[in-house]
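Worked example 3 (structure in, sequence out).
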C-alpha cells in the first residue's frame, strides 16, 4: 500500500511539525506491542500476531463445518459485523448475485427488519436440507445489543421449527464477562472470546472477523500478514515512513481549515463495504465532545455521476481520500457494435479505462483546488485489505490524540441502547 499526499493541501513542513506531537503516541503504541496482551486500549494492534487466537478460531471452524456448509449467518451490528462483511464483500460478496452457485455464502443480519427476516426464513425452509449446511455466528461484545439478540432468537426459532435443537450449529463470539457468554455456556453453545480491551470497531483481527472469514474460505493468514506489515510501519516515529501518523495529521490539519468532511472515494465497487467499515470506525471513534469529521463513502465511477458535481463545485468543506488498487484483471473491451462512439476505448482493458477516469478526476480536483490523498492498494486481496484496516485503525489513535478525544468509547451509542432497553421493558 502506498499513501500519496502531494495534493492534500498542506505544506510538508507543517505536516512534519504537527506530526512531532505524535511521537509520544508512537512510543506508547510501541510499548503496547512490546508488552503484548490486551491490557491497554491500543492493544488491538497485538491481534494480528496472536497465534493462539488464530489457532482457536481455526479449530472451532474445522470442528463445526465440513464440505456441506452452504450458508454462514453472521448476526451482529456495527463493529461486530462490518469488518468481516468488508472482507467478504471485497473477495466474494459483490459477486453473490452473479455467482449464485458459489458456496459457502455469508448472509449478514444486523438491523431488525421483518422483510429480511421472513425472507431469510423462507430461504432456510427451502434451501437447507440438513443442519450441517448452516452455521450461525452470533457476534456481540456486550452480549446485550437488542438488534442482535432479537435476530438471533428469530433465526434460532426458525431453524428449531425445522430441525429441533440446533444449538450445536451456533457459535457465539463475545466478551468472557457478558451474560451472553454465561448463558451460552450453560446451553453448551460453542464460544469464542473477544479480548478484554478490544472494542467492536477495533476487533476485526480477533475471532470477530476471523471466524466468518475462515468459514467463507478466505485466506486469514494473508489477511493477518498484511496487518502485521502495516503495524510495523505505523509505529515508526518518522512521519514520512508512518502512513497512519501521516494520514491522521493531514486529516487534522484539513479539519482545522474547515474541511470537516472526509470522503472516502473507492474506485472499486467491491470495496464499498470497506468504505462503510471505515465510516463506522471514524464516526464512532472521533465524533464526540462537539468534535468530529464526517466520514462519507463514494464509489467510482458510480458516484462521479451522483455527488461528483457537488464535491467539485459545491462547498469547499471536503478532504477526499481516493482508494484505488493497482491490479489489472485483464478484461478488455473490443468494439464492434458502435465503433464510431468508442474511439480511444477499443482494445483497452477495463482497468485501463478506469485508470483514465481516475486520472481525469484527479486533474479536475487539482484544477478546482479540492484537496485529496491517494491510498494505492497493491491489489484487492486479503493481504491488502488487512494492511488497509490496520492502517486505518492505527490512524484513529493518532487522530484522537490530535483532536483530544477518546477514540475507544461510544457514550452516545450506549445511551441509545440503554433508552431502547428501557422502552422495551416498559411496553
Ligand atoms: O464499534 C463498536 O463498539 C460498536 O459499533 C459495537 O460494535 C456495536 O454497537 C455492537 O455492539 P456489541 O458488539 O456489543 O453488540
Amino acid at each position: 500500500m502506498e499513501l500519496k499526499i502531494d495534493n492534500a493541501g498542506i505544506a510538508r513542513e507543517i505536516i512534519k511539525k504537527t506530526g512531532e506531537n505524535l511521537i509520544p503516541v508512537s512510543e506508547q503504541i510501541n510499548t503496547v506491542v512490546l508488552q503484548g496482551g490486551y491490557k491497554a486500549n491500543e492493544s488491538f494492534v497485538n491481534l494480528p500476531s496472536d497465534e493462539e487466537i488464530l489457532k482457536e478460531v481455526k479449530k472451532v471452524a474445522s470442528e463445526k463445518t465440513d464440505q456441506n456448509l452452504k450458508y454462514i449467518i453472521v448476526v451482529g451490528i456495527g463493529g461486530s459485523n462490518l469488518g468481516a462483511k468488508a472482507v467478504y464483500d471485497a473477495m466474494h460478496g459483490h459477486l453473490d448475485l452473479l455467482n449464485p452457485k458459489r458456496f459457502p455464502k455469508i448472509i449478514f443480519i444486523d438491523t431488525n427488519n421483518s422483510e429480511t427476516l421472513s425472507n431469510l426464513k423462507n430461504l432456510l425452509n427451502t434451501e437447507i436440507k440438513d443442519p450441517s449446511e448452516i452455521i450461525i455466528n452470533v457476534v456481540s461484545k456486550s452480549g446485550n445489543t437488542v438488534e442482535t439478540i432479537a435476530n438471533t432468537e428469530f433465526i434460532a426459532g426458525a431453524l428449531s421449527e425445522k430441525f429441533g435443537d440446533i444449538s450445536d450449529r451456533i457459535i457465539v463470539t463475545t466478551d468472557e464477562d457478558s451474560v451472553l457468554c454465561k448463558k451460552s455456556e450453560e446451553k453448551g453453545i460453542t464460544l469464542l472470546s473477544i479480548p478484554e480491551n478490544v472494542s467492536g470497531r477495533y476487533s476485526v483481527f480477533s475471532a470477530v472477523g476471523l471466524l466468518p472469514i475462515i468459514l467463507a474460505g478466505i485466506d486469514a493468514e494473508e489477511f493477518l500478514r498484511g496487518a502485521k506489515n502495516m503495524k510495523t510501519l505505523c509505529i515508526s516515529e518518522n512521519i514520512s515512513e508512518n502512513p497512519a501518523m501521516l494520514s491522521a495529521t493531514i486529516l487534522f490539519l484539513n479539519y482545522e481549515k474547515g474541511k470537516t468532511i472526509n470522503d472516502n472515494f473507492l474506485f472499486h465497487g467491491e470495496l464499498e463495504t470497506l468504505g462503510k467499515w471505515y465510516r463506522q470506525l471514524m464516526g464512532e471513534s472521533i465524533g464526540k465532545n462537539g468534535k468530529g469529521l464526517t466520514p462519507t463513502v463514494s464509489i467510482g465511477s458510480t458516484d462521479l455521476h451522483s455527488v461528483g458535481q457537488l464535491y467539485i463545485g459545491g462547498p469547499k468543506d471536503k478532504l477526499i481520500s481516493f482508494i484505488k488498487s493497482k491490479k489489472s484483471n485483464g478484461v478488455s473491451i473490443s468494439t464492434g457494435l458502435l465503433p464510431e462512439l468508442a474511439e480511444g476505448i477499443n482494445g483497452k482493458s477495463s482497468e485501463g479505462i478506469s485508470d483514465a477516469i481516475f486520472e481525469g478526476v484527479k486533474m479536475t480536483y487539482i484544477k478546482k483546488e479540492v484537496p485529496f490523498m491517494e491510498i494505492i492498494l497493491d491489489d484487492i486481496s486479503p493481504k491488502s485489505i488487512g494492511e488497509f484496516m490496520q492502517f486505518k485503525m492505527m490512524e484513529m489513535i493518532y487522530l484522537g490524540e490530535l483532536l483530544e478525544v477518546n477514540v475507544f468509547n461510544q457514550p452516545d451509542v450506549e445511551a441509545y441502547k440503554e433508552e431502547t432497553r428501557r422502552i422495551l421493558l416498559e411496553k
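Notes: Residues 77-80, 140-142, 145, 148, 199-201, 284, 410, 413 surround 5-phosphoarabinonic acid (CB under 6 Å). The beta strands are 2-4, 71-75, 105-109, 134-140, 170-175, 190-194, 261-266, 294-299, 318-325, 372-377.
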